[in-house]
Design goal:
2 domains, Dehydroquinate synthase-like, alpha domain, homodimer, globular, alpha/beta, 354 residues, Rossmann fold, three-stranded mixed β-sheet
Chain lengths: 354, 354
């Protein structure tokens, strides 16, 4: 079992393994003696035997899978179930699922009785590499992604790469998009590893998966430690996301997050090239890597003006212009000053038509 | 202007004054250049001239006054208004009102975009002495008081005692109940001051009000510093509240919080006497002081079993039995081990019938 320490105000560990039994030992070690599980129907159906083996469960809420559940009604559903299960301040919530389950459960945990403990058991590559680390919780409201949320660090995170083997291909690639993002904004050897191990990864070999989850956890932990509350450094993780979030909203969350940010990374890499931060060959290599893993690099947008409206609504917008996290050579990133609307619009038109 | 420093993880100041103009200077000093006001209709109607003088307001939400508003729907109303006003991460929320406004606004501020700044301008004695200090936010859900909430410290608190002069008598006494609580659990000279200055206080003389708000702020700050996240020491502030909260629920929030905790303090002082923590003369003096200020010391409860159910549901309950914060002589308090249900029930029957 590999360990990564996240040294934030309230430090915690990420454990990476391929044996679910180790989880029971961790629950004992962390004295979690009253557990409330939040999961989704897909994970619950696949892993109910695992879940039933966990001792001291006082209640289980299984939500409808998908981004569409990431709203206030699902949060209220979790509160209702906590109350019905007589959860109290000593209860530990276990979020077992992808990013949606993790974000919603952690929001509920951070606000129920002003905060009960939470343990993350991410079951998707996206969640293991990214969303379960760093304490961001939240849900969408009025069509705006993650507009409501808190910062709330878990007791620990347990990543079992065996979960990744039951993901359908599209869900797995969804996570690969975030892995590619890490390799571009904060390399640490990951970029070359991805170039060289595409096949083993796509075949989900345990050692390859563990390596990638471990590398991504270390990168994310380092960035979160420098900027726990998302004031500056952490914004480099938004590479691909300013355009990506807008694409998700534009398509009413019918495309996956990783697909949207893949397209977002293409557009934003082009912007980076236009600004002289990367050269044309870097831009082409990024597009190539995304494409080679089987992720989309464009999507037909009929109404670019409408897409621009979503970009401007994005919560990272502070003034009238638009900020981006952009690659600066491969393996580094910077936050731009505000870019003009027309400049962004032209990049979108160049990359994805419209 | 008096100042009290609250030395928590993110330290902040409480300012106590009787000149609203000082507030504008503080907003400038704290660089609050985009303000979103949350208030209630009573405060807004009385003070709209004041509010309109504040510069850089991007939006105002005025909620319906009273405990009945302390629910998820009002929180959503605040989110809607923030979005409509184009609030962003640089916006500072100003909560101008009593405890309900403060708790709701601070919850919304702590969760909007994962946290925007909040300034408290408490307008009731209850809020100035108690609820605006210490960072507790929250709302009621499924009939359970403050079951949902966060810990979220403000930028600063501005207490203008002039606000207290327009409170109706019942609302003013509501706050006196918390002041009496402070004098019992953590004296610091306040108990004798209350005994000796009842008339001046009830006539709301500025110097008396400033003295009391200043003393209570210092006591509360000290307790909060020792236990920011309400794990032990802070629980002494729950004196009167275990019974008090249950009475509020039982009467469907139709009696005021201060009235409920006055009765709660009577019952819990009796329990303290029964356990030998205070003697009979202390018990009688407490009841006398509460009564002399014009606060209730009993209320007719037809169904004591139903009241017991509310006590057991109280969020401070951890196991099967019931914990209390009880006076230990006048000026000190302790947290009891778990008390048996029957023992509590008998005390209720003795003090308030049923």
């Amino acid at each position: 079992m590999k360990e990564v320490k996240v040294k934030v105000l309230k430090p915690y560990n990420i454990y990476i393994a391929h044996d679910f039994n180790l989880f029971k030992g961790l629950l004992e070690r962390y004295k979690c003696h009253s557990l409330f599980i939040v999961t989704d129907d897909t994970v619950y159906n696949l892993y109910k035997n695992y879940i039933n083996q966990i001792p001291n469960i006082i209640g289980v809420t299984s939500i409808k899978p998908g981004e569409g559940s990431k709203n206030i009604n699902t949060v209220l559903e979790i509160y209702n179930s906590l109350i019905k299960s007589n959860a109290n301040k000593k209860t530990t919530m276990v979020a077992m699922g992808g990013g949606v389950v993790g974000d919603l459960a952690a929001f509920a945990a951070s606000t129920f009785m002003r905060g009960i403990r939470i343990v993350h058991v991410p079951t998707t590559l996206m969640a293991q590499c990214d969303s379960s680390i760093g304490g961001k919780t939240g849900f969408d409201y009025n069509g705006i992604k993650n507009i409501i949320g808190t910062f709330y660090q878990p007791e620990f995170v347990f990543c079992d790469v065996n979960f990744l083997k039951t993901l359908d291909k599209r869900q797995f690639l969804n996570g690969i998009a975030e892995v590619i993002k890490y390799s571009i904004v904060c390399d640490d050897g990951l970029w070359n590893y991805l170039m060289q191990n595409k096949r083993g990864l796509l075949e989900r070999e345990s050692d390859k998966l563990i390596h990638v989850v471990h590398q991504c956890s270390k990168i994310k932990a380092k960035i979160v430690e420098e900027d726990e509350f998302d004031n500056d450094k952490r914004q480099i993780l938004n590479f691909g996301h300013t355009i990506g979030h807008a694409i998700e909203s534009y398509f009413n969350f019918e495309i996956l997050h990783g697909e949207a940010i893949s397209i977002g990374m293409v557009v934003e890499s082009y912007i980076s090239y236009q600004l002289g931060y990367i050269d044309i060959s870097d831009y082409k290599t990024i597009v190539e890597l995304i494409k080679n893993f089987g992720l989309p690099i464009k999507i037909k947008v009929d109404d670019v003006e409408k897409l621009m409206e979503y970009i401007k609504k994005d919560k990272k917008k502070i003034n009238e212009n638009i900020k981006f996290a952009l690659p600066y050579n491969i393996g580094n990133a910077i936050i731009t000053g505000d870019l003009k609307e027309n400049f962004v619009k032209n990049a979108i038109k160049y990359c994805i038509g419209g």
